[in-house]
Amino acid sequence: MKLPVLFSILFLNAGAALAQNTQPDYLVKANGDTLRGRIQLIGSGASTVRLLRAGQPAVDINASEARSYGSAAGVGGVSKQIVAHGAPRFLSPLVTGYMSAYTGQNDEKELRFYLQPKDSTHAVEISPVTAQLSYAQLLVDCPQFEFGSNKIQSQYPYTATGVSALVVAYNQCRFPQQATQQIKRDMGLRTTFGLKAGVNTSDFSLASEDYRSSHTNAIGFQAGAMLNVATRTNFSVQVEAVYVKLQSLYSGDYNSYNSGIVPTSLTARMSFSQVQVPLLIRYTVGHGKLRPFLNAGPSLARNFNNSSVFSVPFTLTTSREIPIELDALSIGFAGGIGLNIQRLSAELRYDRMIDNREFYTYTPKHTSFRFDVGIRL
């Protein structure tokens, strides 16, 4: 795939994502006040909402102090009691009506679904092991449901889609005159798009023989785009499309090549380009103006413009240049540490790439140390 195509795909996807994620989060307190800012979920089972507002200290609010939270994309969570007179917790709504359905984590941090009749003060946890029995106790007086049968288990599986469809069908069966609404959920994903550029220094694995050489001209550069998809936790996923220019020059003695019959001064010149597309898991610390981060993940690269050669002595006065072959695609690993400074970022990155997966005595892989600066648009 050519460079313009890669960048076009990333730009178009980023533009569409950004258009859907420009509104701030909201939180409705128990007294009805609405607060706006950025929401982060913390604690066991996301039991606490941390509200982040520019120029103000972070505020932690639990389910006893709030009614709901979300954004323009939908509702993220509502405060619900799981047992009568029990402490409330945040659940994500799936369906509202005479019978409502929710999803969230239980005390053991397991994903569960919950049902709540309109006249009940609390929601009931539905375990996947006893789901059919719970349905039979809650979804009564509707003969079309044969709970416990293979048919209904396959028609309404224990998934968000299956449970939602079951509750909608039950409400339409028992209370067709009452409105039932499937809720547009806010999954808490926020996207940011940015540009980055920097310099690199690279070292290549060359001959497996005794190749004592000097290493020079190792400075290259890179530039590209990045798309970060953040959750309401400290973790995010970042994908990049970066043009990277790599080069190095090695020169020195290769004593085992010809035992002194001709001069043994050899050179290896590495020069080629890549479009790297790493997929990184990022962990960011803090929520202020300065936010350190770590990231790591696999990387795939498309190689092109390869002019790398290995110069071998041929006679006393001449040498022969052997092209250094590369695969079309390189695979490897990328990791780094950096700092976000409001919209700017600085990062030290380490790349380890395999550029030729066949058995050759030269150029199977390289390592690069990079320094990048970026800006979020």
TrEMBL record:
The keyword Signal applies. The keyword Transmembrane helix does not apply. Residues 1-19 form the signal peptide. SUPFAM superfamilies: OMPA-like (SSF56925). Residues 185-351 form the Outer membrane protein beta-barrel domain. InterPro entries: Beta-barrel_OMP_2, OMP/PagP_B-barrel. Pfam families: OMP_b-brl_2. Keywords: Signal. It comes from the Bacteria. This is PorT family protein. It comes from Hymenobacter jeongseonensis.
